[in-house]
C-alpha cells in the first residue's frame, strides 16, 4: 500500500516536471526522488 503511494507520487512529480523541463533533468530528479524514498523506507 505504501509503495503504491510512493509510485503515484513519483509519477505525479514526473508528469508535473516534464511539462517544463528537459527529459534529462526530469530523469535526474526522478532518480533523486526514488533514492530518497528508498532511504526513508530502509531507515524505518
Name the helicity range.
Answer: over 70%
Q: Work out the count of structural domains.
A: 1
Which runs of at least 5 residues are low in confidence (pLDDT < 50)?
none
Beta-strand residue percentage: under 5%
Write down the overall geometry.
Answer: flat
Structural class: mainly alpha
Radius of gyration: 11 Å
Mean pLDDT figure = 75
What is the helix/strand order? HH
Number of helical elements? 2
Outline the biggest β-sheet.
none
Number of E strands: 0
Keywords: Signal
Signal peptide: 1-19
Structure write-up:
This protein has 44 residues and is mainly α. The chain is 86% helix and 0% strand. It has two helices and no strands. The longest helix is centred in the last third of the chain and has 21 residues. The relative contact order is 0.15. The model has no long low-confidence stretch (mean pLDDT 75).
Give a short overview.
Helix content is 86%, strand content 0%. It contains two helices and no strands.
Keywords:
mainly alpha; 44 residues; 2 helices; 86% helix
Write the layout of secondary structure elements.
Elements: H1 2-18, H2 23-43
Keywords: Signal
Amino acid at each position: 500500500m505504501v509503495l503504491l503511494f510512493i509510485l503515484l507520487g513519483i509519477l505525479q512529480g514526473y508528469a508535473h516536471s516534464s511539462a517544463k523541463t528537459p527529459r534529462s533533468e526530469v530523469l535526474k530528479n526522478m532518480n533523486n526522488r526514488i533514492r530518497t524514498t528508498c532511504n526513508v523506507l530502509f531507515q524505518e
